[in-house]
Structure formats: structure tokens, C-alpha cells
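Regression test attached.
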Amino acid sequence: MAAINFGYTISKPRVIDLDRNNLRKSDEILREMPELQTCIGCGACTAICTAGNLTSFNFRRVHTLVRRGEYQGAYEEMNKCMLCGKCRLVCPRGINTRGVVMLIKRKLGDF
Amino acid sequence: MKKRIIVIGGGVAGMQTALRLAEQGIEPVIVEKEPELGGKLRGWHVLFPTFTPAEQVLTDLRRRINERGIEVMTSTEVVGLEPRSVALADGRRLTCDSVVLASGSTLFDASIKEEYGYGIYDNVFTSADLERMFNEGRVAKADGSAPRRIAFLHCVGSRDEKVCQQHCSKVCCVTGVKQAMEMKRLFPEADVFNFYMDIRMFGPGYEELYREAQQSYNIHFVRGRISEASPTLEGRVQIKAEDTLTGRPLRMSVDMLVLLIGMRANDDNARLADGAGLQRARSGFMAPRDLFLGNVASNVDGIFYAGTVTAPKTIGESLNEATAAADAAVRYVEA
Ligand SMILES: Cc1cc2nc3c(=O)[nH]c(=O)nc-3n(C[C@H](O)[C@H](O)[C@H](O)COP(=O)(O)OP(=O)(O)OC[C@H]3O[C@@H](n4cnc5c(N)ncnc54)[C@H](O)[C@@H]3O)c2cc1C
Ligand code: SF4
Ligand code: SF4
Ligand code: SF4
């Protein structure tokens, strides 16, 4: 008897599971650029980002997810960045944000 | 003969220090560079968290200074100090038995943050401008009309690596909440937005004030730092931020943008410190001997600190410290 498809699937859990996420890449990234750890999540980088105003790209969100070990799609997202460097001008923590984009792309190219 | 202690600066901290010294039979002298006593409070309207007029606090302190006959030298700037003397800008030197430094702090110059357009576009103000406008009884846009939309920005010149001010100025969050409420009282039809990175409500009644601002005044709090402001054709100010709690960029035009400026170390701290061998913190504020048991003492015997010369503080904290500094100075001169 063929199984009846009720349209239900097991959805991917939304939880950021720090018991499962592998933080190795994240640690590597923070070791190369420890200043990223000083981010206070103010969003000034995202506010000023031209790519972020026109597309769904959100620089703050992507690098925060990477720091939590959520690497899926981060490389593709960072490809939306035009490397204009405006975000670096406004970061109150003085983080080389443009450098963060390049570092994440270099480290997560294979994800 | 009475011992003589020089108090540098006649803000609330300096005035309270002198009063406490006089109570204990010491002869204090207040040296103030401005033409009158009062410091920053001369520019404030009503005070958080109780909306008490600043003038009421100042009048009371000044009256007690007069009644005690405390010697006050106004329009006199101190350019150097030692435990037993201070040097004045006019070349004179005053001798004494000990010195309390109560020279306060300096307001951040908002025009340095060029991206917010202070001094460039109309209708960008600082929190200090707003206090002045409250005092003058005339709060309005540059063209004289009433604002319908007002935005406050927290942390201007504080917590900002770009302007070399890493510290939190402590009092600007609650000032922003207080001023937002005052604007809403003046302009009940207006929408008021506060843009913040963190809301720091550390004092008694502050968190309650914040809650009241949200609940009874309908003030909108948006978690995101404004990245830039620009003028619109209609003379409004357009601001951009990320609404970090929804993760989306946000844009809006306002009639008034108010920058909540911080307190930074006085420029002359460096010169005063070098001359006397005093230590300064990385922020440029004077560094107390230690933050627990010696927080009103300096690293030099006979020199004491009171008030915001060591860090941003509220008036209450500055007054308490002034009392403690006076007591420590008395113990020193009578030892
Ligand atoms: C926008 C804003 C609003 C505020 N509102 C409140 C509030 O509502 N409630 C509250 O509790 N706190 C408030 N504060 C904090 C309050 O202003 C301070 O706590 C208070 O001013 C500290 O007093 P002070 O005596 O240490 O310093 P100051 O007020 O800065 O006084 C220092 C004095 O020293 C003098 N001086 C400096 N250098 C020299 C020198 N070389 N020679 C001679 N004299 C010198 C100065 O002219 C000045 O008169 C506010 C602060 C800001 C920025
Ligand atoms: S460098 Fe990239 S992330 Fe930064 S503002 Fe430019 S496009 Fe946006
Ligand atoms: S501007 Fe700097 S501190 Fe603010 S969210 Fe972006 S990276 Fe973090
Ligand atoms: S008190 Fe608030 S506005 Fe002032 S510097 Fe600290 S966090 Fe920023």
C-alpha cells in the first residue's frame, strides 16, 4: 500500500544548536581577526551598506551567524558585498569590517 | 591657624567639597575659571530622574556657600597644581595645605561626528542645545515651527573607537529618556524615537522612568545605531539605521535629530597630570589611587579628586564623592 502523503515534512530546526555546531572555523576566523569579537551588534554596518539596502544581504547578521558556527550559505551571502568599505567608516568598534568579509569568504569557500 | 585647602573647580562637586571642608573647621578656597559657580548645571533645565529644576539645586548650594562666607575666586583658571600650591593662568601662585581637584569633564563636540551633520544641516541638535532651549522656553525647529517627528541618538562621542572615546558616558541614556518625555509633553502629537545600542538604566528610578516613557508616553525605542543623516528637500533630516531586532535596514525622515553627547576628559587633564605626577586612565580622565578603598585619593599624597574629573557621574554621585574627598583631605591635613 502506497504511503499517503499528508504534506507534512520534518522541518529543519530553527534553533542555533551550540551543542552540535562545530565552532572550529569560527574560532579560526576570530583568531585571525580578534577585533571581530568586540562587535556590539549595533547594526551601523548594515544600515550604511548599499548592498544591504537593495538586497536581503545583512552583513551584521551573516557574520554573527558565522561566529555561532552557522556557516551554511555564508559564503554566498558575502558574495553580495561590493567591498566598498563604507561599513568600516561607521563601525564604533573600529572593526575592519571589509576585512571580515574577505576573511569569511577565504575560510568558508568550501561550505 | 586654620588649615587651607584649595578646591579647583566650582561645579556641584567643588561646591559640596568646600561646604564639607568648612563644616570641619578648614578654610576652603574655590577657584573657578568661569565667571560664576555651578559648572555644567548652569546649562541644564530639569534633572533626571525627578524633573527637579537644576536651578533649585544650584541656588541651594550657592546660598550655603554664601552663608558660610567661603572664599570664591571666579574667572580664575588653574594651570598647574602641587599638594601645597596651585598655579594660576595669570602667573600667580596660591599656597595651601592640600588640593582637591574637582574640575569636571568636557562635553563632546558633536561636529566631529560629521556624518550626523551637526552644525551643517538645520535641525540637528545636541542634548545640551535642547536643555538650553527648554530653559529659554522656546523649543522649535530652525524655521520656528513645531516638530512632528523627533529622533534621539544615544552614544554620540561615547563608546566610539572612531573618536577615541571608548568609555560609556553613563548619564546620556537616562538623559535621552528624560528629554524624550519632555518633548512628548511639549508636543503630544509628535512621534518620538530613541535609537540606542544598549540602554543603561543603572540608578534608582531610572528603569522605572524608561518603562514609563514606553508605556505612558508611547516613545519608540529602536535598537540600532544611526549610520548617517542627510538633509531632505523639505528641510527635514533623513536618518538610516539597522533595526537590529528585525534584522532590516530602516530609514525615516524627522523634523529634529537630537544627539545625546557624552562627557570626555578635560583637555587640560594631561598638562595638570604631567606637572603634578598624577596618573590618568586610558580614557584621559584622572585615575584614582584605587577604585575601592582610595577612590577619592590620587596617587600623589595631598591631592584628592571629587566628581566627574575621574569619570562620568551623576550629580548625586558627584556630591557624595565630594563629601568623601573633603573628609579624606581633612584627615590628611590633620595627620
Ligand atoms: C546633557 C547632560 C545632562 C545631564 N543631566 C543630569 C541630570 O539630569 N541629573 C544628574 O544627576 N546628572 C546630570 N548630568 C551629569 C552632571 O552634569 C554631572 O554629574 C555634574 O555636572 C558633575 O559636576 P562636577 O562638579 O564634577 O563637574 P562640572 O559640572 O563639569 O564642573 C567643573 C567645574 O570646574 C571648572 N574648571 C574646569 N577646569 C578648571 C580649571 N583648570 N581651573 C578652574 N576651574 C576649572 C569648570 O569651569 C566647571 O565649573 C548631565 C550631564 C549631561 C552631559
Ligand atoms: S564593504 Fe560590503 S558589507 Fe561593507 S558596506 Fe560595502 S557592500 Fe556593504
Ligand atoms: S558596525 Fe561594527 S560593532 Fe556595529 S554591528 Fe557592525 S561590525 Fe558590529
Ligand atoms: S549612557 Fe547610554 S547613551 Fe551614554 S554612552 Fe552609555 S550607553 Fe551610550
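Expected vs. actual: identical. Chain A has a mean pLDDT of 92.
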